[in-house]
Design brief:
The protein has about 160 residues and is an alpha/beta fold. The protein has helices at about 5-10, 45-50, 75-85, 100; strands at about 15-20, 25, 30-40, 60-65, 90-95, 110-115, 125, 130-135, 135-140, 145, 150-155. The protein has four helices and eleven strands; from the N terminus they run αβββαβαβαββββββ. Belongs to the class II aldolase/RraA-like family.
Length: about 160
């Protein structure tokens, strides 16, 4: 994939949607992008765990965790599994844990913050639903690009 530089993409494609600031880049891959797969869950990463076990095919999982900072929705083992299965990245509207290991993992990861407590496992969550957070609506099949400058969403592939 070509270099992803979100300011340059915004200049070239002014129609992109820009997610409000607040996300922190934690992954080993500092810039990433791909087709969106959505997950909606709250303090339960069961669906995230299922999805990272499937072929990612260069896609990006966008997870609406309701901005909860009480439980982490991604840790080092799931990040490693996602990287091994070909996911380009994971964006979490919530928290992650095991940051030092995730920084070594060849995966793009952005989240609101960190929390050492693992998520609950109740088997709850929705896959491929419309999500809205950060002032942007995410639809499965759209494209998302992220780097240290921010996160953008496009109807079509940009790189």
């Amino acid at each position: 994939m070509a270099d992803i530089i979100t300011p340059d993409l915004c200049d070239e494609f002014p129609e992109v949607k820009v997610v409000e600031p607040g996300f922190i880049n934690y992954g080993g891959n500092r810039a990433f992008g791909g087709e969106i797969v959505t997950v909606k869950c709250y303090e339960d990463n069961s669906v995230v765990k299922e999805q990272v076990g499937l072929p990612g095919n260069g896609r990006v999982m966008v997870v609406d965790g309701g901005a909860s900072k009480r439980h982490a929705l991604l840790g080092d083992m799931l990040a490693e599994k996602a990287a091994n299965n070909g996911w380009a990245g994971i964006i979490i509207y919530g928290c992650i844990r095991d940051v030092d290991e995730i920084r070594k993992t060849p995966l793009g990861v952005q989240a609101l913050g960190t929390q050492p407590r693992k998520s609950e496992k109740r088997g709850l969550g929705d896959l491929n639903v419309t999500l809205t957070f950060g002032g942007v609506t995410f639809e499965p099949g759209q494209y998302v690009y992220a780097d240290n400058n921010g996160i953008i969403v496009s109807e079509k592939p940009l790189v």
